[in-house]
Design brief:
alpha+beta, 3-stranded antiparallel sheet, about 325 residues, homotetramer, 5-stranded antiparallel sheet, Beta-lactamase, globular
Chain lengths: ~325, ~325, ~325, ~325
């Protein structure tokens, strides 16, 4: 029976290609994010999918070489950096629970004295950025974040889309509200403009699916960089980052993502999702249309199909 | 290196015993639930831990043969039953997202037209019970739930603690509020008294850690009953029940449980927790003292230790 | 100038008749309450207006002799009774602030430990009814409320519409939710069924505009019954009941009513409003169509016109 | 009896003096506002009370000539100005209902699309300021507000306490949050910094009780300036401003103020309250200690005593 099962084992490259082909044909793509003017210009028909397996093999299909704005996917990497710098002290200013509200809600902050519920909603990621910034100039902090991503993806060409950063800086009133609100409770240590400046810029980092899937590998391998074998984070910390991605990585659609896809993942309003199959693969998908929770609509469906075909659920 | 790793593999029985010994000594046990008068009488120093491995071996320590009120742990089994009866129609009356609020909160219901966020908060479990009840007499529905548990645990001695059921029936005003509130939105099909009668009684089922760990085995084995090899639920459904336990199984402490323990689990205010290590083990722990989120304080700590020592996280 | 002003003084009878004529012609009548099935049967074109002046003269027009369900207007009289029995002890279980939410909201109760914000939202009126009930049988308490209204209106024919009471008893799940919720916080002293039984019945009292305007006279005269000269309540208490009517008498439309009409008033979902011009007149209006806040749409417009034409604002 | 009543008519000057004497002796003064550092420096034992009667007579006692920061009392005057400029268009961006929440709550804004509930909570007053600012430079708008107050009070010496304005500008993060939040919904037309600059400065206007009572006279006289006889606002508008003061003038203590004092009033966290007895008197009181709702504790008690002794309730 084991042999039979092996015989039926699907070929990853074929699966990835089939999914990309199917997704490119689907008409129900959701709406491209419009609240940041610059993001609204993206081509809604784009679709890319890259899987980097545990052994380093890469399966890629679709628009895999087109850089897109990673937006909130960057929060996985800033969380990793901030935990490396502050350790468990980070949890003084941000919680670890799903929020039960939209990504930019301010209601929860009022109820809970300005402490955001988790590092993956906007308020929480702003608090994490504030921790990274402490003791540095904004420019230095941003440089550190960017170099960390270049290092993880083994690609020094990764950069920031300044037009997107400027667009959000001009129009991100909701984030100004969140940051000032936390500041009023003493949760932020740095000037609001500094913290938000770094935040807007790291959200505006542009990456391809290829680069993003590479950057996620350390979460597949219990915190080790598979290229060098060096530890990026301790194994326990890697597990915990995965846990947070599972419970909080898709805003108020996190339960649905866990239910359907069964893998830790983090989405961004640019339409990207990074998903991790622990011990098996790092996956990046990109489709700009969003569902009502602000997550990539086809991205989630592609991941659901991929996980089912490959048998990659963490739940059995 | 693999051999070395195997050599260091901890012995399950020793681990279980050590944990039970340590937990019995800890003074910081949390508070026993007092809102149901009958529950307040339980011995706060009780502690039991049972692990049923994938191969059927059992490791048990502490008060493993003492029946306790499983309370909300029963929601895993009523959800399984209801999905078997109603299939995905169940999701018309209950969602799949973490709630971001305490177990008995009514606020979310007002915002979301009487649809509870998930099947594991009280309101959601009442809606699930209502689905099981449809077309039956309360007595029949309750019998079905009880027989399902007896079947899963292979133990026909499992019964209901009528004193606890009566105590909750007399004093469960908050649940009467939740049920009537949902009824006002048309979410419940049956008379409130019928639905709550069944709900209070299935929460009052008394089980030992031994019985509870046995009953959870189908979630370890992708929905199959390991004793008979028969399917209890489809593999995909078993995974999804595990996913819901992970994101929603500990009320507003679900994120923390995922972060620290890294396994799907469901707690009850009686102090019990059922946790699942997919493919590896079904685990039941019982310690009556609760933390501020209403979950067993030492139960969670014991599971965190067990998972770390055995390397059982689903996150890598 | 004073003479001129007097010469221009409008004739009350003409004003009342003109308003009723205009209101009968208006097509924009709002929606008749449908959440109590029995109330939905009422004729939406009905309109009645009665003013009882300080000197006892009566100006009436329209359907003034048709009894309608006074619903929440009864809360003015139960508050008066409860204050007479419990005095300021009543305020242990109910507040005095506008609610900022719809009439049947339960959210505020969760935030404030089961204490309703004021006696004129449903939860608050249930708490007031509970106070009246204490130490009595439901039948006695209800009899006391009914006799109080008969006494104030000088009309022993006032009775309860049993069909409406039974309709609400069968379908008033939201009120069952509110009452059980308060009970869970220990705010209600009596069994929920008893308190709600009395509550549903006093809301189902049927009165004509004529009777209602008569019953409100003591609030015009600083608490004195103008017929007998006897004190119904102390002057200070009469002022305070008027104050509560102004700030809380129209649910989440109370600010709008104060802004537009400028008189204390209390509305009911049966379409009735009792308004008080202190020292000048007691006014009852009835038009069954409601606005989005649950207040009589034409009733409010009629009162706005009446107050403006007669110069009866309390605000100058 | 009327004669007797007249004979018993209390002498205003004596009443005012007695109240001031009593208030100066009371130890229970509440807490001075500390959230604006500069305000925390004020002498907590200060107390002033000034009544300007309808005939122009002035009764004053205590620290009547000491300027204090009027803070939110300024909102009465900015509302008056904005209504003069925008008329009923103002109500597109601000409501007229009590908020049911603290003065600086942001929760309501999320539920209601960034539209503040009324012009007297912070968010509402910021929206009103934004309306005054439209088409002007901040400096011009501020000059207009200041001149309006100087005109009403007949005192050109009224000015702005720049230290208070600067203190709030540096630390008013909560107000920055509110303004950015409204801006994200498109409720504010001007740059957030401009609108808040004007807002912080008009809140920092310093006035004596004497000046404040003079400035309130137009609300006693149906909108007319009693000195010149000229109309400041139309009678209906004056009534409506009084109505808003009554229902919303004391944040989440507005119901209590209406219940106890029975007069329209507006408080500020500087400890000042302006109260209006329509047709009778304009009253300013100042005592820096605040109650838990953020209103002057002794100020409210003084007004309650004054209104009771003078028989000045608007409720009968």
């Amino acid at each position: 029976m084991k042999l039979a099962s092996k015989a039926a084992m699907p070929d990853l490259e074929t699966v990835v290609k089939d999914i990309a082909d199917e997704m490119r044909r689907r008409p129900d793509r959701g709406e491209v994010a419009s609240y940041i003017p610059e993001l609204a210009r993206v081509d809604p028909s784009a679709f890319g999918l890259v899987v980097v397996g545990a052994d380093g093999t890469v399966a890629a299909s679709g628009d895999c070489e087109t850089p897109f704005s990673i937006q909130s996917v960057s929060k996985v990497f800033t969380l990793t950096l901030a935990l490396g710098k502050a350790g468990d002290r980070l949890w003084r200013k941000v919680g670890r629970e799903p929020s039960g509200s939209p990504f930019n809600s301010i209601v929860q902050l009022e109820r809970e004295c300005g402490i955001p519920r988790n590092p993956f909603i906007n308020a929480g990621a702003i608090a994490v950025t504030d921790e990274i910034l402490s003791g540095h100039e904004p420019r230095e902090a941003l440089g550190e974040i960017l170099r960390f991503l270049q290092f993880l993806a083994e690609d020094s060409s990764i950069g920031i889309d300044e037009a997107v950063a400027a667009s959000e800086q001009r129009t991100g009133f909701r984030n100004f509200a969140l940051a000032n609100y936390m500041k009023s409770f003493g949760v932020l240590d740095n000037p609001v403009d500094f913290t938000l400046g770094v935040y807007f810029h790291h959200c505006a980092i542009a990456m391809t699916c290829q680069q993003l899937a590479m950057a996620g590998r350390f979460l597949v391998h219990l915190g080790r960089d598979p290229a060098t074998g060096h530890s990026v984070v301790q194994p326990e910390r890697a597990r915990r980052i995965n846990a947070l991605m599972l419970t909080c990585g898709h805003y108020d659609g996190s339960g649905e993502f866990a239910y359907r896809v069964g893998l830790p993942g983090k989405s961004g309003v640019g339409g990207g999702i990074l998903a991790i199959a622990p011990g098996k693969a790092s996956i990046a998908v990109w489709s700009p249309g969003l569902d009502t929770s602000g997550n990539s609509r086809l991205g989630r469906i592609a991941l659901e199909t991929l996980a089912r075909k490959m048998g990659w659920s963490i739940f059995g």
